[in-house]
Amino acid sequence: MALVDKNLSSSLILDKLYGSNSTEPPAHVLEFDDVVTLAEFSPYLWSHDLICIAFPSKIIVASIKFKEENNDQIEPLKYDIVKKYSCYGRVQAISWSPETNIKVAPKTILFAVSTNTFEINIYSSDDTYIHKISAHRNYVNDISFDPSGEYLASVSDDLTCRIWSVKNGYTEAYKFYLDSSPITAKWHKDDPGKLLVAETFGIVKVYNVLGGTAIISFRSKLSPLISLDWCLNDCQHIIAMCGGNLVKWNMNNPSIPAYDKLVHPDGGFFAKYIPLSEQTIVTLGTPDFSLKVLHRDKPYPKTIATMKTASSLTVHQHLPYVCVGVKKNIYMWLINEP
Predict the structure, then answer these.
(1) Are 113 and 123 in contact (CB under 8 A)?
(2) How far apart are CA 136 and CA 119, in angstroms?
(3) pTM of the full predicted structure?
């Protein structure tokens, strides 16, 4: 499969105006026998080697080890399947539990997925899911375990955000009603009681879950809001893809964006921080399913690659690797500082 489209696209024309056209081949490619619908690296220390890969009828949990982290490793990349699971319905979102651990005994796998059946399935080290949540009445667009592993948050097109108590058998602990379809839910890394919810109309709220109230609320000038990420290293920084614009906010003054520029003329899909730095951001959007990176102090992102199609974007937590699902493959780029 050819990765880079050699025809000059409208996205690359925009890049050329800013002097930022620099397409690169991926550093690694994983090939599968079915279409990759979604992939997500674990964000936690004891399981950061794990990736959850969703296909139309199955889920694979695999270990990916890069030579950059393992000096004794001969091959540049080592891929090993840890577990396979059956899945009924297209996976919409994946969330890893902080209880997942493959470094020390007892080794544990715990993650959740939402599907287009409006349900949430929780999977463990066993061969099947251990719990099913069927309370939502529409698509569940995102799910997120809190850093303590005590709660699982879910946001749905039924215009609710629900908080499930893990220790009480995933019973509903809290519920918030929303103004428009939610896109994402993100927990504060250092304060498990704070949950950020972003909605399609551009509304972003931070909730005090235990208090049941929104403590911060602001709105993007552009809509729809497509994706949002909360910086792990510094929770004062938030980015979002609003239409084709990349928007950055500083939570000290969220009413005025710190950055707001068109980066994907026909619309964006994803915007994510590279976890090692709050100053490096990757985006994926159209036309041409262009993958772009914005480095610190640069006015405009540069294009890393263009693709025929793409289904997901995930980033490694300890290395600056960006992974994109492309049909039956996962492409991996190493993002170097300029």
Answers:
(1) yes
(2) 7
(3) 0.92
